[in-house]
Amino acid sequence: MARATNIIVVPGKRPGKRLMRSRVFGAGIGQSKKETNVELNLVSMIDVFVLLVIFLIQQFSADGDLLFMTDRIKMPEAANYEQLQRAPVVQISMDDIALEGMLVATTSEIDAQELWNIPKLEEILRDQKKAFETLNAAREEFKGDINIQADINVPFKVLKKVMYSANQAGYFNINFAVIGGGGGSEASNEAEG
Amino acid sequence: MALNRGAKKKVDVNIELVPFIDMLAMMITFLMMTAVWTELGRIQVSQAPTGPSESSTPPKPTLQLNLTVTERSYLLQVGGEMKEIPKAADGSFDTAKLVEELKAVKKDYPDHRSITIAAEDGILYQHLVLTVDKCIEAGLPDVSVTAALG
Questions:
Q1: Could you tell me if residue A83 is inside a domain?
Q2: Tell me, what CATH number does B81's domain have?
Q3: What is the extent of the structural domain holding B99?
Q4: What are B34-64's pLDDT values in tens digits?
Q5: FRET pair for B96, CA 20 to 30 Å: which of A47, A95, A99, B45?
Q6: What is the pTM of this model?
Q7: CB–CB of B24 and A116 under 8 A?
Q8: Is B49 within 8 Å of chain A by CB?
């Protein structure tokens, strides 16, 4: 029976039986079968998991949901900023202008036009203001807040038209959405280069 | 059929480790997926209404403090005096000098909090934000951006 178990052998060079029994030459040949199954230390693993969960919960922030993050809009950095609050978001990328994710106009079109306002944007903002005032007439006063999430390379010519339209629609408090942290000087040099 | 009234209940409870580890793993996955690594904020700027509005009239400023961002320099108007802060040698706006000038103004008028910023059409959004950021840093938090220039 013992022979039957040894029918299948691992191919490769192996010394003779006598040499394997030798203390000098057979030291690392016959007895090299290390234990491959390692017992996982559950206590340490659970400790690590719990710490990870606590860290991630601390990092959790709902502010990201207030803006529609997209790779087409690279936001500027600022050091002196306040916490972002819920307000209509106007996104200005190098390609288009959108309000709450809804396309309003193309940036090139707005850049080229002589008019100061963006009629569609103004109209939607007016509707939103009216809806807010109707729904919250007794509870809350309309503050006229609006968030502008623009790409760092958008020219002021486009931005001022968006601001003017917001102004015309009754949104006077304009908030530039920024990424908190640096002073912006590095980003500034990067864009110029 | 003998009633086992005297039997003591076991008070030790074994926590099922496998569901616990599963739950932790799922929580980690969920939190990693929804994690926001960038801190978002806002810089509030006001804009003077261009048309007639129902809102009350803004308070009259004690000092006329205007800053114009042009392609070549900053133009700082303090009352009737105009100062030009040209770009630095590397082509970037000299924000350090701007902050210095604004702090000097703030020293003379400690109660003054407002500044009006105007920019040329070609000025990039990031430069505008940088300028607003520096004005706030210098102690002028009530920043108005006007589109009057250009």
A1: yes
A2: 3.30.420.40
A3: 63-146
A4: 877 777 888 888 775 454 444 455 555 568 8
A5: B45
A6: 0.70
A7: no
A8: yes
